[in-house]
Automatic annotation (TrEMBL), chains A, B:
Record CDD domains: GH20_HexA_HexB-like
Organism of origin: Cerrena zonata
Name the record gives this protein: Beta-hexosaminidase
EC number(s) reported in the record: 3.2.1.52
Name of the top EC class for this enzyme: hydrolase
Gene Ontology biological-process annotations: carbohydrate metabolic process; glycosaminoglycan metabolic process
Lineage per the UniProt record: Eukaryota, Fungi, Dikarya, Basidiomycota, Agaricomycotina
Length: 558, 558
């Protein structure tokens, strides 16, 4: 019976041999010739005046390949490859080339171009005969994506770095431009090093957007020039805030890795932390019990009916927007609790004097704050409530993040607004960890169950979206709200799960052989991606027992 | 309104001021005098020929106190304490004393004494007037428990180490002797350093038992003298196995920290890994599809009807038992799948020739293997099925681990057997992380939902157990099965949750003021315990936003 098993394993192993690429390229052909990396392997950048961040990316690629030291996920961990490797041809170099007429702008500049105008496509060839490999692209950003693929082609065994699948030909481009991850740095704080480690992992999955939910009611860690008092009083501590230098560090680190940083300063709800510096702008601040007026403690929302508060907010957001080169800026807009204002004497007095409804005041507030951002060339991003629950006038350019339910995307599309998918029923990384409020011993997570990578992987970006509306879908992202997370569990709660949506939005619905993307095909590649992350110091979780990771197909339910 | 809030916070803060002790002592009185640690603070061991592991424990205590650097979990993190600390008396020393007539055996020796005969009680006094603190106990193990409490009395602020609650008088002893944690090192491997870090955290929570589920069907990492081929072929790799030296290292590290190591070699099920070295002993080995014959892949169970296999197993377990000084040895016994034997020609042939039923053969197997262990002075430990589902004759001394449901404990008690609670509905740390089998994209964890610390904390060890049966309850433990865990997420999945049952079984059902143990009282102490773990390099998760951790009572549901 044991012999019988080995037969099964070998067969399945051969079927799933598409290297360890994640996301899987749109078009991929590979052979079965062994090829090893020359000890003097070099990357030649065949571009006059190549930008520094491209040279850095090439140097990182060489470093990754030499230090990943990832053994093949098969029984014996690649020991059986030794004989074949010993006589394999050596790959001497990789040449990076831009297509004629392409400009050699920096990766950072390409990564923050207006969404839809970025060029991420690339063509990668790895010949089997020992002649140089090549990556060709229309932009340095495309070359970076190609380098990221190239890094994932290699295994290690016996001090050799090799592939068993040369020659390799890849033509690749993303299905959707927005492939993101959201991190909440307000409920609990994350150091710059935690964010950088996350950006490294995101870049390995070819993700393009870091949605930085920077501030919320619990703390305001973003130091904004001209408004430094908001963080100095509203952050957990001075060591738990992001200085201008920290922000520049994060933005430039992200940009060099092909990632656009979309900051969010959530308004007018989720702003209790502004009370510490500007109590005059916050209604129902710290009201206790909190539940009638807030989604979670502490309560507190901006007095958006007040012209003074509206102007303060517009100036605060404008000052923050200048710190970030991205074309996007998120003003939040989720979970505005109207009860908060019903009991706020100042808001009621203003509404009485102007004769406006609360909804009219909210619309004015949004128009003023968004208008200020648009003057700075920013495209506003909002959560779905601003479109689906409130009667707010927004620019047609506004991007809407769907979070409450995947079923709400269709309603946003019907309003002809652009969509980023981040529905809690598929993409919330925090779900399933139990109740975090203090006195509910039998309570569970509000968005149970845990969203497995498999569940996220089944997401259909075009469900209930017509062909005519399809262009409105920019992509999507997984999200980490941090009521129960901080640096202690950042890596395990995010990785490798967040790579699931990275492939959904890069690869699209079909594999290069025409078959539908599916969890069975994906699992062994995701194991590889996970083990590579671990080799790089990202504490991604084990998806299965190692026994299963080494034996594709043996640990399916049956 | 903000002023109103501060009033609330201060009031609640005062109510919950019982230091940051976890588990909370059975009897505790504290004052409100500030006291700081002298820079020359020493621990004097007032015991002739004090054992080395007690001196080591005292040295560790001083090191912990000086390096924990834990700030008070209040708004301002203890900055407001500065004035009071400045003029506080200094604590020069702590004296450790054994009660007259007590023997000065090592902590390690005391920790592995027969359960029920260990002495863990201690009395701790910290005067407020600058005279020395004292811990008195009947054993070095009791002194260790007292040192662990002493470590938790101190906060840091402005380079001062202090308490605001002197004088402190504690008289303490555990409600139950078995306070454990189970770790599965077969499905995924954990390095000795991971286990040691876990033992350190366990010791801080005064836990007494490390239940080491060492082997299973996926891998057999335990190198057993005389049977080294089982691990050399059945471990994931030689670097993923525990040598005799590793085992001694773990046992002695645990012992010095007051922890008894109960090893488990699960039999006769969960033994597919033995196939690699001894295929002749394993039925339905690696049968695929696995689900008709096994709880999870890979399939494989010992041929317990075979006298050869029974003798092999008895010798293997005996050789393993000699590696561990504990009085306990677990032979497992869970999830024996009878279908496996229905299709096993060798088993059927043996049963035909002997005329025995499968159940009779199982009973013989258990008697032989347990008999061999009992000859070595070991008390066998089994999972509940051996008592509740099989017609197996077991010694009255056998300890039974309840896992399938908390409701099954009563049935074990009715059989007059001793109980360790580890029910999946309260104590399984792996629940709620989604389906790990490969092709079930919408599947969830089999034991959903996630078991929160609050849920575990509500566990009643005596539910449905009569007063006459109460003596059968040895205690209980939380358990980590590692289908989806390895060193990447060990700390966050275990801590601080596993401390929940540590307090349930140390403190019992009532607090020292006579009130019932409850999650509201416990939360702020558990925050402190968690932050202290983080300071010590254990990546325990955040239970709530820091905002909540600093403001007891403000983040309850309402």
């Amino acid at each position: 019976m044991h012999t019988y098993l080995l037969g099964i394993v070998l067969t399945l192993s051969a079927l799933t041999a598409t290297n360890a690429l994640w996301p899987i390229p749109r078009s991929l052909e590979s052979g079965n010739t062994s090829l090893k990396l020359s000890s003097g392997f070099k990357i030649a950048i065949n571009i006059p005046r190549a930008p520094a961040d491209l040279s850095d990316a090439a140097a990182r690629t060489i470093n990754h390949i030499k230090t990943d030291n990832l053994e093949r996920l098969v029984v014996g961990r690649g020991a059986a490859d030794s004989a074949s490797i010993q006589h394999a041809k050596e790959l001497p170099s990789l040449t990076l080339t831009l297509t004629p007429g392409s400009s050699a702008r920096s990766i950072s500049d390409e990564a923050i171009k207006t969404i839809g105008t970025r060029s991420e496509e690339y063509v990668l060839h790895v010949p089997s005969d020992g002649s140089p490999a090549t990556i060709t692209a229309n932009s340095t950003l495309g070359l970076l994506r190609g380098l990221t693929t190239f890094e994932q082609l290699w295994y290690s065994s016996n001090n050799q770095i090799y592939t068993m699948e040369a020659p390799i030909s890849i033509t690749d481009a993303p299905a959707y431009p927005y492939r993101g991850l959201m991190l909440d740095t307000s409920r609990n704080f994350f150091a710059v090093s935690d964010i950088k480690r996350t950006l490294d992992a995101m870049s390995l999955a070819k993700m393009s957007q870091f949605h930085w939910h920077a501030t919320d009611s619990q703390s305001f860690p973003l130091v904004i020039p001209g408004f430094t008092e908001v963080a100095s009083k509203g952050a957990y501590s001075s060591s738990m805030s992001y200085s201008t230098k920290d922000i520049q560090d994060i933005v430039s680190y992200a940009g060099a890795r092909g990632i656009d940083v979309v900051v969010e300063i959530d308004t007018p709800g989720h702003t209790a932390a502004i009370t510490e510096s500007h109590p005059e702008h916050v209604a129902c601040s710290h009201v206790f019990p909190w539940s009638p007026v807030a989604g979670e403690p502490p309560a507190g929302q901006l007095r958006f009916a007040s012209p003074t508060t509206t102007n303060f907010t517009a100036e605060l957001l404008s000052a923050a927007a200048k710190l970030f080169p991205s074309k996007f800026f998120s003003t939040g807009g989720d979970e505005v609790n109207t009860n908060c204002y019903a009991g706020d004497a100042e808001t009621q007095s203003i509404l009485n004097s102007t004769g406006e409804t609360l909804e009219q005041a909210l619309s004015n507030f949004m128009q003023t704050t968004h208008g200020a951002l648009e003057k700075l060339g920013k495209t506003p991003v909002v959560w779905e409530e601003m479109v689906l629950e409130h009667n707010v006038t927004l620019s047609n350019e506004t991007v809407v993040m769907v979070w409450i339910s995947s079923e709400h995307a269709a309603a946003v599309a019907q309003k002809n607004l652009r969509i980023v998918h981040g529905p809690s029923d598929f993409f919330y990384l925090d779900c399933g960890a139990g109740e975090w409020l203090g006195d509910n011993p039998l309570g569970n997570s509000w968005c149970d169950p845990f969203k497995t990578w498999q569940k996220s992987y089944t997401f259909d970006p075009l469900a209930n979206i017509s062909q005519e509306q399809a262009h409105l879908v920019l992509g999507g992202q997984q999200l980490l709200w941090t009521e129960q997370s901080d640096p202690s569990n950042l890596d395990p709660i995010v990785w490798p799960r967040a790579a699931s949506s990275a492939e959904v939005f890069w690869t699209g619905s079909t594999l290069s052989d025409g078959s539908a993307r599916n969890v069975n095909e994906a699992l062994s590649r995701l194991h590889d991606f996970r083990f590579r992350l671990v080799q790089r110091g990202v504490r991604a979780i084990a998806l299965q027992p190692l026994w299963c990771a080494l034996r594709p197909g043996q640990c399916n339910g049956d």
